[in-house]
Amino acid sequence: MMEDFSIEALRRVVGERGVITDEADLAPFCTDWRGMFKGRARCAVLPRCTAEVAAVVRLCAAAGVPIVPHGGNTGLSGGATPDASGEQVILSLSRMSAIRSLDVIGETMEVEAGCILQVAQEAAADAGLLLPITLAAEGSARIGGILSTNAGGTNVLRYGMARGRVLGLEVVTADGTIVSGLRQLRKDNAGYDWKQLFIGTEGTLGIVTAAVLQLAPKSRHRVTALLAVPSADDALAVLRLARQAIGETLNAFELMAGPALELVARHVGLTTPLAPAPWYVLLEASSSLPSLRDAVEEMLADVLERGAASDGVIAESEKQERELWHLRESITEAEARAGRSIKHDVSVPIALIPAFLRVADEAVMKAFPQARINAFGHAGDGNIHYNVIIPPDADSQVLNRLVHDLVVAHGGSISAEHGIGQYRVDELHRCRSAPELELARRIKLALDPAGLMNPGKVLPQTIVTR
Ligand code: 2HG
Ligand code: ZN
Prior knowledge:
35% of the residues lie in helices and 21% in strands. The longest helix is centred in the middle third of the chain and has 15 residues, at 232-246. By secondary structure, it is α+β, with helices and mostly antiparallel strands. It has helices spanning 7-14, 23-26, 50-63, 117-126, 143-148, 156-159, 195-198, 232-246, 258-268, 292-305, 318-329, 331-338, 353-367, 396-409, 425-431, 434-447, 462-465, and strands at 19-20, 43-45, 67-70, 89-92, 99-103, 108-112, 129-130, 166-173, 178-181, 206-214, 216-217, 221-229, 250-257, 279-287, 311-314, 341-342, 345-347, 372-378, 383-389. (2R)-2-hydroxypentanedioic acid binds next to strand 19.
């Protein structure tokens, strides 16, 4: 039998200040960073420990109240935004932000879900180690959200997606059970690797409360370079040469279309140190071997001689490195200021990036002559943010379908790193095969039969109710 839902009962669990009901205080939890998704909620609950998360989940489960987990709110797919019903409870992990332990010998860190990525990165750096998850939103994104969305970022090329960093996980399941698998083991084949069910499923199967992350050695030398390249094909030629010359040291290989950096100049006021070009590549390499810089210089000389790049600059100081990265990381903000943009966080096999860009540009400009294409992304791992700025009255669904059909035709994915959230639910169901969707449905029903965990995200809610 359903019990009555009571704010007072929640307060008894998380303390007076742990429940937010005031409309103004609740507002930031009910919209995303871009203000694109908006909803309403009964309240936001901010537990202080895993036991409190479990108690909150049990109270909500008993009353049949849906839960929307909330991290740094930077996901861009609406995964942390409640629906319009006002029935949902937001569960913010922000008061669970401890770094529980750090093991320098094993190079691991146990961290709570609410810890901001940058804080975790700094703690690793203080111990002479590297937490190799690097995102433009690292100053706000929280570990729980990063793992729940299996975030990517700029160094996936070398270190893989967030999933690959997770050695151990602690979760609260939909019935309020704490499942702790906070092991520090690099090798653990004892049974099902259940933690993968909670990584990348955006809180639809349970709540990530803590994790053991695999750190990496910190390189002593780093080289960052910006190149101007005539075409996307040339960018891939640079990638190939870089992989051959300095492959294992390459952290990032970012591609930016000329218009993307024009947006940054116009809306953020930052300019490139190179002459205007159709495309730019920002690459970063790091190694503890002192010969790194010589190797990068040699590789760049080769690239210029072959004509794969028309110009290039290597950062001479940390300040210059930050300036080059600042250009890249300002594209999202510049785009947000430029008007209504429709995001496509897509990936295709790396070798097909130029072909995809060619056909997509042609098709988009034919269907939407007033569109401005803002293409940039992590070319080294095949992920392009193929964002399109369109007039307010343009049909975004037509645009989404057009782009995603081309992505699928190129063997790609309609969400490379930002997840499905509420933004891409329909498109996921249009683009994925029936057996894959059925498998997802069976997993959802097994772990969250009442459909109370982040309903309507990733999977349509009808999956549970039908
Ligand atoms: C990035 O690569 C982020 O900067 C944001 O993933 C992507 O704004 C976007 O579409
Ligand atoms: Zn990205």
